[in-house]
Specification:
Helix 3 (131-152) runs antiparallel to helix 4 (157-171). 34% of the residues lie in helices and 20% in strands. It is globular. It has helices at residues 21-44, 51-64, 131-152, 157-171, 207-222, 278-291, and strands at 69-78, 105-114, 117-118, 121-126, 174-175, 186-189, 201-202, 205-206, 228-229, 242-246, 249-252, 255-258, 261-265, 270-272. The chain is built from six helices and 14 strands. The strands form four sheets. The protein has a five-stranded antiparallel β-sheet. It has 310 residues and is an alpha+beta fold. The chain starts with 20 loop residues before the first helix and ends in a 19-residue tail after the last helix. It has one domain (21-288): Creatine Amidinohydrolase (Alpha-Beta Complex).
């Protein structure tokens, strides 16, 4: 009897990219709507406004714009809460009575759903002048470029997370996305098709969201993957084709900032769903300003690096 050939190891097939260009256009529209409402609220805010007032205004504007449901309720963090200082329980993520003051940073986070198409965005800003925020906001561009390059190289998600960690350390900042439940830097986003009460949330997440997440967690784990992107064993796999909401969140002392936007991952490529976003426009404007010729100025002793603020 001839020897039995060794059994080949089971290869987990990469799932096909599930969306058409029409689908992507709808996701892009929802993301633009979310950022537009966040910008409107940012322009409306002034010293004295509380986090709760900001989230109520953000929710009102989103619903007026046609939002039918939420992946999660809107969040607002002011001052050192943007860096999640002294956060010990998930309840601390919810908006509180912290009031905006001159010089304070803030972060607005919302995740609207329109016709099942979900976006999840993070918008950072400041009231008045804050040099530390300015520096972090400029450096945040590096993380957007790094994440895209790593995902395009098909690096396992936990290794991409580690690369971001290394860059944060090189900048001298703190990793603040590790404070999120599950230490996630991102999560998959899908089109919600489950039936359930719209606009109803449990612990901050929409009922439909919880139904969809539960289904995805079970399905992905059966294939050795996870819809949650963190630094643990469950993320030791190549990026799964689909849409990922990615949110690198960095901090320095009492200042935190992040962006959050949708990353498109296909079977053999990756790209950001939209480059016409507030943080990208800010970086572009900064680059353009830096290349314009300027008049020579007198030398100054004023420190120009973040180290001077330590």
């Amino acid at each position: 009897m001839p020897p039995t050939a060794p059994t080949a190891p089971t290869v987990k097939a990469t799932p096909a990219f599930p969306y058409t260009e029409r689908h992507l256009a709808r996701f892009r529209e929802t993301q633009q709507l979310a950022y537009h409402c966040a910008e409107q609220v940012a322009a409306w805010m002034e010293p004295g406004v509380t986090e709760r007032q900001a989230t109520a205004e953000l929710r009102r504007r989103l619903i007026t714009a046609g939002v039918q449901d939420f992946f999660h309720v809107p969040f607002a963090w002011f001052g050192d809460r943007t860096a999640f200082r002294h956060f010990h329980t998930p309840l601390q993520f919810f908006a509180g009575n912290r009031r905006l003051e001159e010089g304070m940073p803030y972060v607005l986070d919302c995740a609207p759903v329109v016709d099942g198409y979900t976006a999840d965005i993070g918008y950072g800003g400041k009231i008045g002048e804050n040099r530390v925020w300015d520096r972090l906001a400029a450096d945040l561009q590096v993380y957007r470029e790094l994440i895209l390059a790593e995902v395009r190289a098909r690096r396992p998600l936990n290794e991409v997370y580690a690369a971001v960690d290394a860059q944060i350390a090189a900048h001298g900042y703190d990793n603040r996305h590790q404070v999120y439940p599950g230490r996630v830097i991102g999560h998959q986003v899908t089109r919600t098709t489950v039936r359930g009460p719209a606009g109803v949330n449990v612990l901050g997440f929409g009922v439909r969201t919880l139904q969809t997440l539960g289904r995805e967690l079970i399905s992905e784990r059966l294939h050795g993957r996870s819809p949650l992107w963190a630094d643990g064993r469950s993320s030791r796999h190549a990026p799964t084709p689909g849409l990922w909401a990615v949110e690198p969140h960095i901090g320095f002392r009492g200042v935190g900032i992040k962006f959050e936007e949708l990353l498109v991952v296909t079977e053999d490529d990756a790209y950001w769903l939209d480059d016409d976003l507030p943080h990208v426009r800010r970086w572009s404007a900064g680059t353009a300003a830096a290349t314009e010729p300027t008049e020579p100025t007198e030398p100054t002793d004023e420190p120009t690096t973040l180290e001077a603020t330590r």
